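Appendix B, record 7
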Amino acid sequence: MASRELLVVILNHTNEELNTEPQWPTLIHGQFIKDDDLPPPQTILAGESGMLRCKSNHLGGGVEGSITYRVVGFGPRNEVTFFWSVPYVGVNKFSAASAIPNFQVQTLGGHGNQAVVVFVFEPSQKADGGMEDGGVLAAVAKYPLECAEGPLNGFNHS
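Structure tokens (predicted):
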């Protein structure tokens, strides 16, 4: 087992298709885990999800990288980029940037040596001005989530 592993999940909660180029998933540190069941996704259809896995490539190493997608049908500046860093020592960091103001990205999870991070790509404003989930996503996103190694006893809000 690698010293650090990461499963990246990208949820496309829009009506738009996301496409990437073969050279865009980049790793500064680590390597992609090539799995026939889980290849890095070249396309994430509207309402669908994509996943990719990466791991450190040596003892004492971390994982750091990004993947950029184009939002189909949106002019020349139509990119959204997802970034991750799972260092051997230090705090895991995740972020995302959308060149299109119509969209935003929520980041959930991502704690631990074998981390799972979920990027939720969604419209910036709900069409009806309300929250489809009754505020559950906002409540979950307010506090960082921790991946439990055993039974879940509660949330750490620190």
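Remarks on this record: Residues 127-158 have pLDDT under 50 and may be disordered. The chain is about 5% helix and 40% strand.
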